[in-house]
Amino acid sequence: MNDVHFHLVVTHLPIVGVLIGFLVLLTGYITKSPQVKATALGIFIFSALAAIAAFYTGEAAEDIVENLPGVSETLIHTHEEQAELFYTMMLVLGGVSLVTMFIHYKKFAFAKYGFIAVLFLSISSFVMSKFVGTSGGEITHVEIRNDPNNLIELDSHHDHDDD
Length: 163
Prior knowledge:
By secondary structure, this protein is mostly helical. The protein has one domain. It has helices at residues 3-31, 34-65, 73-105, 111-140, 148-157.
C-alpha cells in the first residue's frame, strides 16, 4: 500500500462518518433516546480522528499523484483548500462532540445545547464533505469533472498515437 492508497482509504472515513453520525443523531432526536444521541457523538469523535489521518496523508499522496498524466495542479490546489476547511470543521465537530459527551455523562442540564450545536456542526460538515470528496475525486477521475478546461488539460498529456 503506497501513500496514495492509504490516503484514499482514510479519506472516506470522515466523509461517510459525518453522514452516519448525523443520521444516528437525528434518529436519537426522533426516538428521544439519549443513548442513540451519545452514540452519534462517538461516531463524530471517530470521524474527527479519521479526518486527522486523512489530512496528514494528503501531502505524501500529492507528491505521487502530481506527476501523473492528466493531473491538474489547479484541481489539487482546490482540493487542498477544501480539505483544510473540512479538516478544521471536523476538528471543531469532534471537539464539541467530546465536550458534549462529557457534559451529557455528567448529567448537566445544558448538555441539550451541546447536542444542538453538534447537530448544526454535523450538517455544515456534511455539506463540506461533499465538496472535498468531489474535488478529491476529480483529481484522477476525469469522468466526474465538470470543467471542460480540466478535460482539455488531460488531453494535452496523452500521446496521440492513433492520429
